[in-house]
Amino acid sequence: MRIDPELIQRAKAVAAGAAEHASSVDTEGRFPQEAMDAVREQRLLGLLIPTELGGEGRTIREVGAVCEVIAGGCGSTGMIFAMHHNQIAGLVRHGDTDAFRERCRRIAEGQLLVASATTEISTGGDTRSSTCAVEPAEDGSFTLVKNAPVISYGDYADLLLLTARANPEAAANDQVLVFAEKDTLTLEPTNDWDTMGFRGTCSPGFIATVHASQDAILPVPFATISAHTMLPASHILWSSVWLGLALTAAEKCRTFVQHAARRTPGVTPPSASRLAELNIAVDSFAARVHQAAEEFDSIEPGSDELERMGFALAMNGLKIASSTAVVDVVNRAMLILGIAGYRNNTPYSMSRLLRDAHGAEVMVNNDRILLNSASMELVRRSRTP
Amino acid sequence: MTSEETIRDVLSQHAKLGVDATTIGADDDLYAAGMTSHASVNVMLALEDAFDIEFPEELLRRQTFASVSAIREAVEGLAQ
Q1: pTM listed for this prediction
Q2: Predicted ipTM?
């Protein structure tokens, strides 16, 4: 599928600037402000919002393509961009009220950045269960206090989505999604973000307190928002970011091997075979990510098809496959680039890519996803036609 | 046991509801009552064993197991 070249050009403009600052973002563990300014300048924060609300009505496949390009310049910027659009997908597909349509319009118009708090200290990485609860008041407002171990770019976002139990009596998995504006929210930091990779996502823990009107609660249970939209979209968009890292590693290798070949015309350098193998791995990786995005886009929002176990298994499989593929590709690149990739001060340096790549398997741990798939495998029906 | 009693028996063993599965309303949402997707798989397996049936692909979705009456409808449809 061909992606709108104008869209790719805008993404490339961001990626070029992001690449310039990626090293200092990584070293200092700081928010990629320059790159995110460029994202806003290119008006890329409203891509999924319908055109009638001031967005561009783009598909997940298109947004994924932009994630690939931006992540190629800076992995942290790519992840922030991917997470924002996952939040927007949830709002666009499930915010079927005038209040939410108005919010989407404001996000597109003001190029507002949306973060999320879907994990909680007490429940760990299990996003489908909450301890904190929305506490409704008689005047139509509510209060929510959530101790979140990680809120990516929490300090830099304009808006925040939080999961919580629907009310103080609700079961742990009877969750809603709450939309918090800056003026309804206080964030009290509880730890810092000093990690191996994706250092610029700036994802420390916070105690978030929201006091807002009840129309800031999404009108659909989070169970549906998660299964129909946010889980598949996050696996697709994160995978697109990791694919962007793999493509950058492949590009370094291409340049390196071709440079070596020019010095010895007539002799194919041994690393060229490794490059050929690496590109086979990258092609499988890309095909899987693109196919998943196209499948998701082809299913009507709200359709029963999104509830199918086979669909959930395919999306879990995508996350596991992509997060391991990126490490595999980066490792292959290390061998091709040799000492030039091992050094920190060459254009071929693999340090940041290597560290970023290893984040993929642990951000929503693959073991958790595999266990979820394992329970579905106990009842999965025949896959033969 | 009637099929509804068997269903409620399976639910009390496997659904991990926050309420009593033998008295929960036939149309009450089991997920809202605390059944996780992991628990719903166990419920599915136990139902297949109890009724000696196999849920076909098209019934393997959230809605099939959303309430006692939804489960009964699915189970009775398969037993015919």
Answers
A1: 0.94
A2: 0.78
